[in-house]
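Quick question about two entries, pasted in order.
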Amino acid sequence: MKKRLVRVTAAEPLTTERRRELEVLVARPDSEIDVSDIPEWDAAMFARAERGRFYRPLKSQLTVRLDSDVLAWVKAKGRGYQTRINAILRQAMLEDASQK
């Protein structure tokens, strides 16, 4: 698995005054936080939720041997045949996982 290094640079340096403000906020108990503008989650909201909407799985490069007729069938559908093969395998994987 390839590791990526992420560097984050603050837009502006943290001043002493701002640091004190943050320390006061951290020390505040959760009971003092006003969450009245945040809607409560209900069953209808969970029903509309999409699992993994922003999830992008890591890709691995490999060499695989496929029967010529299978490869021709997948390529006949047009561009994106590798993505299509991945989708077919993912569907089979999910179906197999749901049967266990």
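Here is the second entry:
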Amino acid sequence: MTRDEFKDALDRYGGDLAKWPETLAAAARQHVAGDRGAADDLNQARRLDDLLSAAVGPQHADSALIGRIMSGIGNGHGRDRSIRPTGRLAAWASAATIVSLALGFMVGIAVPQDIGNDAFAGIMFGAAYEEDSESVL
């Protein structure tokens, strides 16, 4: 077993060699006996397994905690609060819409009408550029 195969098997099966397939476990034991780095990798995998099993273990819930949860359900705590449209919100949204429309109109008026042989203007305003280019040819 190579070191890469050993690390791959550690990632796949964890740090407990008893949970590995028997053939891989036997090869891993021989590899660990001959390689100090592999033994360190195995110890790290065991510590990771211990941490993960402690993190997902059952949590203690006494009757006081359950009572607080149940009392919170009945007295209105934790109700869903959504944003409701108000008159002020609608007024600001309307004002923002009007300003953006007016700004767009003013920018549209400010665009030059004669684009000549300007390639960038041709890309932006294709139809007008095509008409001008036909008259030049």
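Reply: The radius of gyration is 36 Å. Residues 9 and 24 are 8 Å apart (CA to CA). Hope that helps.
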